[in-house]
Design a protein that fits this description.
globular, 7-stranded mixed sheet, about 280 residues, alpha/beta, 10 helices
């Protein structure tokens, strides 16, 4: 009998992957956690039946979350990562020698434990000496921080369930306060393609522009995410993601990547017209 993982992208669209084996299935206090293996995408993680990452394409998401802001901000020392229990964002951050501290806040310890065991390709740097892991609500954690982080990366799940509080005006306001005077925040911004996802994207963008004067969206192609067209938010107190971008400085680091490069960086901020029109309605 064939086993397939299927996720409903809309009530009329489904995405399916043929599964070789289910490696893990657990119920935490927050969500159901499953790990599968497949011929096409390797191992993949789902939470409450929603795709989080696959071995084949996770590098796209994690590289774009990290290397875009790191190529703009000239002096990142302290980083706050909210969510990201799979460890992929931390893995990319540890490629930068100048970073001194990475605080990772994940509400669900079981996600981290599962990823350490079954997804070592993303969790491989969680034991880096610069990494501090806090198992608590990111919304509450950031409330008590002020002028502390040069970069905040919000690698949250979708805006419902455990990740819902990370898409609120209060949360973005607290992130603004937690950043240094030239700090940057990057967050996953959902997809603009399907109607319900586009509404969620607009809602998140409307709330973050209320806290940050400089907000830009950028994009990547991630095959296993709804529609494959995914957006990220770049918001800053000082730096413009293109005008203050220094490709020579980043290239001189000789960091190995599979997706991100400095030519792609500029192009990622050139959005299709239909996305620009969606943003006009909320900015």
């Amino acid at each position: 009998m064939e086993l397939w993982f299927t996720e409903n992208h809309t009530k009329n669209v489904r995405f399916s992957i043929k599964v070789d084996k289910q490696l893990c299935s657990m119920q935490s206090d927050f969500q159901r956690i499953d790990v599968f293996t497949s011929e096409e995408f390797g191992r993949f993680l789902t939470l409450d039946g929603y795709m989080m990452l696959t071995e084949k394409d996770e590098f796209i998401y994690h590289e774009m979350m990290v290397h875009v802001p790191m190529s703009v901000h000239p002096n990142v020392k302290n980083v706050l990562v909210i969510g990201a229990g799979d460890g992929g964002v931390v893995r990319e951050l540890t490629k930068y020698d100048e970073i001194e501290r990475i605080d990772m806040v994940e509400i669900d310890k079981m996600v981290v434990d599962v990823c350490r065991e079954y997804l070592p390709f993303t969790a491989c740097k969680l034991d880096d000496k610069r990494v501090n892991i806090f198992y608590q609500d990111g919304l509450k954690f950031v409330r008590n921080k002020e002028n502390e982080y040069d970069l905040i990366i919000v690698d949250s799940t979708d805006p419902f369930g455990p990740g819902e509080g990370l898409f609120t005006k209060e949360f973005y306001g607290n992130c603004y306060k937690a950043l240094t005077e030239d700090g940057i925040i990057v967050n996953q911004h959902e997809s603009p393609f399907y109607k319900d996802d586009a509404i969620a994207m607009q809602r998140a963008h409307k709330r973050i522009v209320q806290s940050f004067n400089l907000c830009r969206l950028y994009q990547a192609h991630i095959p296993t995410y709804p529609s494959g067209h995914w957006l990220f938010g770049f918001s800053s107190k000082k730096y413009h993601p293109v005008k203050d971008f220094d490709p020579e400085r980043w290239n001189n680091r000789n960091i190995k990547t599979r997706y991100y490069n400095t030519n792609l960086h500029r192009g990622a901020f050139a959005l299709p017209n239909y996305v620009e029109e969606l943003l006009e309605n909320v900015e």
